[in-house]
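Progress note, sequence design subtask.
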């Protein structure tokens, strides 16, 4: 595994394959994958997300986010940043490993001082979120993809929308 930072390496590898300058690759990817989509995120925010976050916040349940993309910009664009006490990106120097590697999940637990068994990770991709959480010993629920099943070598739970997650996994008080 290359020890160089992913936030640099991801552009250098693409540039080498295309035989172009890495700064140009970074400029194009930053513009078209990280900056331009932000203005559309609030429009595609999943149904029930705000209600679930409000429900968790009212019960003083800490909420964090782990993303392969710049997380703080993404949370602000979704209009949910105020609910999150932790935002981590897999390219952060302390993590430096894309999902499904367990390192980001493990780092979040260490940062919060909690055991993986105390965490429920909610994701939307079983092949990255489900596999990465399982590798770190964290329970995971996939939102929007089928029901309970087996995917990527792990058992997983799934719900069709955030509203069902609230009712299925959060104890009302």
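Output:
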């Amino acid at each position: 595994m290359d020890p160089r930072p992913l936030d640099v390496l991801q552009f250098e590898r693409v540039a080498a394959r295309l035989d172009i300058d890495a700064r140009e690759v970074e400029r194009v990817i930053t513009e078209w994958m990280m900056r331009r989509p932000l203005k559309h995120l609030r429009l595609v925010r999943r149904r029930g997300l705000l209600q679930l976050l409000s429900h968790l916040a009212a019960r003083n349940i800490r909420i964090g986010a782990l993303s392969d993309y710049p997380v703080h910009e993404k949370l602000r664009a979704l209009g949910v940043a105020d609910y999150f006490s932790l935002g981590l990106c897999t390219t952060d120097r302390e993590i430096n490993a894309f999902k499904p590697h367990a390192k980001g999940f493990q780092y979040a637990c260490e940062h919060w001082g909690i055991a993986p068994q105390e965490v429920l990770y909610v994701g939307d991709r079983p092949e990255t979120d489900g596999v990465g959480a399982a590798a770190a010993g964290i329970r995971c629920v996939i939102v929007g993809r089928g029901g309970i099943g087996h995917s990527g070598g792990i058992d997983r739970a799934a719900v069709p929308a955030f509203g069902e997650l609230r009712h299925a996994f959060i104890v009302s008080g």
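The chain has eight helices and six strands. Work on this subtask will continue into the next period as scheduled.
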